[in-house]
Amino acid sequence: MRAKVYVTPKPGVLDPAGKAIEGALHSLGFEEARDVRLGKYIEMRIDGDVERVNGRLEDMCRKLLANGVIEDYRFEVGE
Amino acid sequence: MRWGVVTFPGSLDDSDAVYALEQVLGEQVVRLWHNDRSLYGVDCVVLPGGFSYGDYLRAGALARFSPVMESIVRFARDGGLVIGICNGFQILCESGLLPGALIRNRGLSFLCTMVRTRVEDTDTPFTRNYRQAEVLHLPIKHGEGCYVADPRTLEELEDNRQVVLRYVDSAGRATEEANPNGALRNIAGVVNATRNVFGLMPHPEHACEALVGGADGAGIFRSVRAALSEGQPTRVASVPPGL
């Protein structure tokens, strides 16, 4: 199976990189872009039944892939 | 007493920390490698600055899982003294030994400059040789030094007097202009609730002798020596049998 993991700054946590991207978009004429947040996208191959894979991914996110103090995460599992 | 200075792949300031301790302060130092499980009986561990494991994923995130860190976490939980400088501070936050996290500087730029920090609390083994509210002139050099924590954690830190260093201006005031990286409440250094683990973004090991522009950082290491020689309750890392 393929897993896609998305890690994003928690709402309220300062994201200066997101802010800089938003500024750049505005200066390029994309004034409608709002609340730009820069996160991370991680993909991997992971085998096992869906329930176990979901549990393992949850563990990976909590232990390593995201820092719960500053980041939220979500993931998708597909073929 | 013996100091342990850890080297991770990507550490930069380990040699400077060893130099400051050995050559300037006359201390005995054991160099610890990231794969070591033993701490060789050291009394205080220093996690130096740099880019451990390339700062991949997040600064400090991968170093936390090295064998030496497992031993350091146990050492710290038993009351052992640990100082994390810059990347070392990031590692301590990632390890859960210190609250909060360090994120990208507000201005996005890597900062390499001198700052003033005010000693907020002298009731720690790391700051006891300073005067309350003493202003220290120390270097910083980091891209991710903006200290953040949720509002409740910040209140707890203030209530328990765990904020040890704050960025201040030349008059000693913690103003917005004096804050180099956007750290919440101008926080430059914190201790854990049991006051035996200290993380700070400025580099005291680069400020231990007049030759490099000042010796304001030496007091941190001298404080530890004073605390340990007075037998302040703390634990020494156990030496495994056969060493």
Describe the overall structure.
The complex is a heterodimer of chains A (79) and B (243). A three-stranded antiparallel sheet of chain A has the order 2-1-3, covered by helices on one side. Chain A has helices at 16-27, 50-65; strands at residues 2-9, 40-45, 71-78. Chain A has two helices and three strands; from the N terminus they run βαβαβ. Chain A is α+β, with helices and mostly antiparallel strands and 79 residues long. Chain A has one domain (2-78): Mth169, Chain: A. The model of chain A has no long low-confidence stretch (mean pLDDT 95). Chain B is α/β, with parallel strands linked by helices. Chain B has one domain (2-229): Rossmann fold, CATH 3.40.50. Helix content of chain B is 21%, strand content 24%. Chain B has five helices and eleven strands; from the N terminus they run E-H-E-E-H-E-H-E-E-E-E-H-E-E-E-H. The longest helix of chain B is centred in the last third of the chain and has 12 residues, at 218-229. The mean pLDDT of chain B is 94. The A-B interface holds A 9, 13-17, 20, 40, 64-65, 67, 69-70 and B 57-58, 61, 65, 93-94, 99-101, 103-108, 146, 148-150, 182.
What would the keywords be for this entry?
heterodimer, A: 79 residues, alpha+beta, Mth169, Chain: A, elongated, B: 243 residues, alpha/beta, Rossmann fold, nine-stranded mixed β-sheet, 21% helix, globular
CATH architecture of chain A: 2-Layer Sandwich
Sketch the topology of chain A as an H/E string, one letter per element: EHEHE
Largest sheet of chain B: 9 strands, mixed
The CATH homologous superfamily of chain A is named: Phosphoribosylformylglycinamidine synthase subunit PurS
Measured as a percent range, the helix fraction of chain A is: 25-40%
Top-tier CATH class of chain A: Alpha Beta
Strand tally of chain A is 3
Shape of chain A: elongated
The CATH architecture assignment of chain B turns out to be 3-Layer(aba) Sandwich
The end-to-end span of chain B amounts to 17 Å
Q: Rounded to an integer, what's the Rg of chain B over CA atoms?
A: 16 Å
- Strand arrangement within the widest β-sheet of chain A reads 2-1-3
